[in-house]
Predict the structure.
Amino acid sequence: MEQIKIADTKKWTDKIKNLNNGKVKKYNIMTMGCQLNENDSEKIAGMLNDAGYEKTEKIEEADLIIFNTCCVRENAEDRLFGKLGEVKKYKEERGVIVAIGGCMMQEKHITQKIKESYKFVDILFGTHTLEQFPKDLYEAIKEKKKIEDILDVDGIVFEGVPVYREDKIKASVTIMNGCNNFCTYCIVPYVRGRERSRNPQDIINEVQTLAEQGYKEITLLGQNVNSYLVYQKQKGENVDFKVVVNSKEMVVNSFATLLTALDEIEGIERIRFISPHPKDFTDDVIDAIKNAKHVCKLIHLPLQSGSTKILKEMNRKYTKQDYLDLAKKIKEQIPEITFSTDIIVGFPGETEEDFEDTLDVVKQVKFEQVFMFIYSRRLGTVADKMDNQVPEDIKHKRFDKLKKLVEDEIEVQNKNYVGKEVEILVEGESKNNKNILTGRTESNKIVNFEGSKDLIGKLIKIKIVSDHMWYLYGIYDNI
Ligand code: SAH
Ligand code: SF4
Ligand code: F3S
């Protein structure tokens, strides 16, 4: 049986409250990674709320400073060490508690470096011990000792950890943790453990609660969401879960059936998910998206490279043609579908010809959004040991070329929106201008417009009147 544990965070958060004598303490958290990492920060925030802490954006007034780290690319490390240098003075001046958690803490060479060079850090906690953070914090304050709470295990599913979300319209919900794919460039399987899926009823209950709280959009998170429950099935576990959603009995035994079940929840207008893996994109998932009323017709389908040779070296388990065929098949089934993707340039052994294949797929698929990354060597991965690393200047040249192509395509796409009416979910006030509201189309394009604040949280029709690189501008006319 899958190991599911109910976290006992309350016991420790109560103890911290007593220790602080009811005084409200402040914490500052820096989230450095992906949406899973952000969702973990929302859990840390949930636990700290219970412990009587209040969030502050001002690091200089915090009693507790937390870094929730990422290690997927090298720049994340540079950022952490830069910030730690800054924080040292707060430790010396005011004795703040400094805690570092997240993926980077699962790398021994990093924790070693912190213990040697940043001795003032109080707590190190890893990805498998997140729910023990209140216990670690309690011990660090009470016993004034250095805590290292890091496990090197496959992982357990924890339920019952409180989540505090700042956004009141859109919420992320982690449905599975870990990864079994071992793409040769990627550190994630080493720091997040093996795939483990949450029980579908727990996910349904969480989404139902979010709907009751007024949330309109949810994003299901996992490193490989379309292998939800697959690993349990491979291990011979019974994964036919009988669930109740909206008073209806259903069976959830796959990602497709989970989508179908969540689609039943009243009040949730939009369901998104990241990321599916092209190799696991089975027909039942396509059908589920097609038949669902609320699943957005935008699929984030990570390509990584357009070259079959490089894809093989990356251990992605599909070819250029497989990817193109899959995109075509989905488009035939669901004509209104759009795609977004992730691409890495400069993987070891990538030639100009390989890179041209990547550009070719970008031209053929016409993505709504492309997240582009320069290949970054990660210690312990297979690709790091490859001896045909691409020189930095070539990587950068290719990156710039890809970026130019993507931007040119997005410009054309955005122009096509002008004059059209689109449906958007209004998310709130624009960050830069309080008089402007902002929302997103189903295809995730940002749309800014003038309107009254009571539109926030509503799905409305907007006429697009002008296009810009990163957003569209529209007019709302409710008559
Ligand atoms: N599980 C997801 C994403 C994981 S990390 C997936 O498979 O799509 C997010 C993105 O970071 C990846 O899609 C990849 O494009 C990029 N990435 C991962 N490792 C990298 C590395 N070593 N160098 C550069 N980019 C990397
Ligand atoms: Fe990394 Fe590949 Fe797993 Fe995504 S699927 S997390 S890229 S190993
Ligand atoms: Fe980074 Fe960990 Fe996410 S390495 S990308 S924070 S899973």
Observations:
- The first strand starts at residue 4 and ends at 6.
- The chain has 14 helices and 23 strands.
- Residues 421-475 form a domain with the OB fold (Dihydrolipoamide Acetyltransferase, E2P) fold (CATH 2.40.50.140).
- Residues 33-34, 36-37, 70-72, 103, 188, 191-192 surround FE3-S4 cluster (ligand 3) (CB under 6 Å).
